Every structure is written in structure tokens, then in C-alpha cells.
Amino acid sequence: MSLQRFISEAISPWMKKDGPDSDIVLSSRIRLARNLQSFRFPLLATIEESKQLVEHVKNHLAESSYHTNRFELLCMDDMKPNVKRVLVEKHLISPHLAEESKHGAVMLSEDESISIMINEEDHLRIQCLFPGFQLSEALVLASGIDDWIEGKVDYAFDEKRGYLTSCPTNVGTGLRASVMMHLPALVMTQQINRILPAINQLGLVVRGIYGEGSEALGNLFQISNQMTLGKSEEDIVEDLRGVVMQLIQQERAARKRLLESSRLQLEDRVYRSYGILAHSRIIESKEATQKLSDVRLGIDLGLLKGVSGNILNELMILTQPGFLQQYAGTVLTADQRDERRAALIRARLKLEDESN
């Protein structure tokens, strides 16, 4: 498979679009946790009960569509480990669904902006992904899908507690709103060290690119609400929106100060990183993500011309272990992945040069 074709097929269609404030907010996500009545929750269910739940959902949802969105149901049991890894790297399923769920499955929309995980920690995890800063739009879509599903199956719901979930922190609305932010200037100026504790005190949580337990590589931070009980969906999203807007303003101010006070050093850092990416023969994942972050900052500040702003989004996914092995068509050792990663980045940047 050619690199151009691999890229076009590997990147979700929704990721190729621009959104508001996309120079700082890469994506917005709304996730709803739901369980069905008359079925034991996934943590207690047997394999047979989990299979019955998948069939129940399939019979009621898989053959229908939500407006123009048609879904394809994929069972984890039918997938090779690396295929599941690729879906995790594209944020279409969770690591829990890929590795720990009993007879898990996922329903994906054609553009992959909608993902309905089945038999994850809860019976259903409804996820909607939008490019840029579009929390409200994602909430509208997720709520519509939620209503559509609720019209076909019976949810586990309590009048006082709201939607019942496996984890107590999800009881109530069952909503997790999150944004993926690129904050290199706040990291460079070390302002991030005082900002993150302040965000946690506001009832929000900051994680790495793959959620809970993951490292904030490439200056990418996932910021989401922590509690789901006692507030409406709209209030949860509005609280997160306010904090994200402040972070956007602070990141832009930090970028402006860096340009004014250290422009030459910033240019040097950006071009050194571009040179390493364009010419290295071996590169580890952590170094690649940091250099990609530098290049993306250079693009957004107008220091680096002729390179697509989506390069960070694309290569952050394409250089992950699952994608590298998918492109190679075989299992790779860590050293082989480092070599392949460098080759893929060089080839991608060469495509960028040729297109210009």
C-alpha cells in the first residue's frame, strides 16, 4: 500500500476537517455511559450474558440509522490484537474495550466521528468526536443519539440518582466531556506547572493523549470533567468550556511573548526539530511527538511555511506502534518500529514538499 493511500485510509474523515480554535484545541469529545435494564452490568456479567447483550443491541440498533449516520458493528473477538490497537490509537475504542472486556464490540459511523462501545465498563459508551473546539456541537449530537437509542432499548435509570453506571463517578448524567489541547508555549514558559493544579481544584482532570494513566506526550493534554452527579449536561459542558477558553487565551499570550522575547531561539528550535524529523533514520515515539509538537507550533506561528497544520494530528497517530505494524504488515520489534517511524515521517514530509 502506498503511503498516500495508507494516510487517506488510516485517518478518520472527521480528523481531516478544521474546527474553531484548532491551532490549540485539536478535538472535542462527548462520551455518555449507559446501561440496560434486565442485563447484569459488564463487570458481573458472564460471557454468555455479554454475548446476549451484544445480540440485543445489534437487533435493536445495528440495522437502523441515526439520520444520515449508518453504523457498522465490529466484534472484538473477531479482530487481531494489532487491529484493536489501531482502533485505540485512533481513539475509536478504549484500551479497556480492546484488552479487558468480555465479548466487547463497537458500532462505528462511516466518518468515525460516532463510536458506540458495547460491553466496555458499561453496556454502552456513546462517543462523539469533533475537530477543534466544538463541545456544544458534540453534546447536541451525543444527546440526539442517546435519545434515539433510548427509544429502542430500556436504560437502567433511577429518578433520584439518574443513569446508573458501573463506576460511581459516572452516576447521574453519565457524561464525560473532554478536549485535546496543544499547549507548547505554556510548557516552555513553565506556566503549565501552576495551571494544572488550579484546573484540578475546579473539579476537572488533566490526562495524557490516551486518557487515564497516559503521559502528556507532545505537549498534548486531555482536559475533562471529573464528576457527573448533581449538574446538568449543559452545566458540565459550560464549566469545561469556560476553563478551556481561559487556557486558549493564556496559550496565545504565551506564544506571543515567546515571539517577542525569544523569536530567534524559537525559530531555531522549530527548524532543528523539522530537520531531525526530515532526516533521522531512527526515532523513538517520545522524541518524535516532541519534535512534531515543535513543528506544529512553528506552523501555527507562521515560522514554518509550506507544511500542513494537520501534520501533528496525522503523524501522532500514524507513528504509533499499531499503525506502524499495520503499514508494515508484520509484527515489529521496538528497534524496527523506531526505524519505520523515522522512515514514515521522512516520507510524509517529502509528500508535503512535493505537493508544494
Automatic annotation (TrEMBL):
Pfam family, one: ATP-gua_Ptrans
The Phosphagen kinase C-terminal domain, residue ranges: 24-254
Name listed for the protein in its UniProt record: Protein-arginine kinase
Record GO terms (molecular function): ATP binding; creatine kinase activity; protein arginine kinase activity
UniProt entry keywords in alphabetical sequence: Allosteric enzyme, ATP-binding, Kinase, Nucleotide-binding, Transferase
Transmembrane segments: none
Motif extent (RDXXRA motif of the pArg binding pocket involved in allosteric regulation): 337-342
SUPFAM superfamilies named among the record's database cross-references: Glutamine synthetase/guanido kinase
Catalytic reaction equation(s): L-arginyl-[protein] + ATP = N(omega)-phospho-L-arginyl-[protein] + ADP + H(+)
Any one Gene Ontology cellular component term annotated for this protein: extracellular space
Gene3D superfamilies assigned: Glutamine synthetase/guanido kinase, catalytic domain
Residues the record lists as binding ATP: 27-31, 91, 125, 176-180, 207-212
Regulation: Appears to be allosterically activated by the binding of pArg-containing polypeptides to the pArg-binding pocket localized in the C-terminal domain of McsB.
Enzyme class, spelled out: transferase
Matching HAMAP family: Prot_Arg_kinase (MF_00602)
Record family assignment: Belongs to the ATP:guanido phosphotransferase family.
Entry function: Catalyzes the specific phosphorylation of arginine residues in a large number of proteins. Is part of the bacterial stress response system. Protein arginine phosphorylation has a physiologically important role and is involved in the regulation of many critical cellular processes, such as protein homeostasis, motility, competence, and stringent and stress responses, by regulating gene expression and protein activity.
GO biological process, one term: phosphocreatine biosynthetic process
InterPro entries in the record: Arg_Kinase (IPR023660), ATP-guanido_PTrfase (IPR000749), ATP-guanido_PTrfase_AS (IPR022415), ATP-guanido_PTrfase_cat (IPR022414), Gln_synth/guanido_kin_cat_dom (IPR014746)
E.C. number: 2.7.14.1
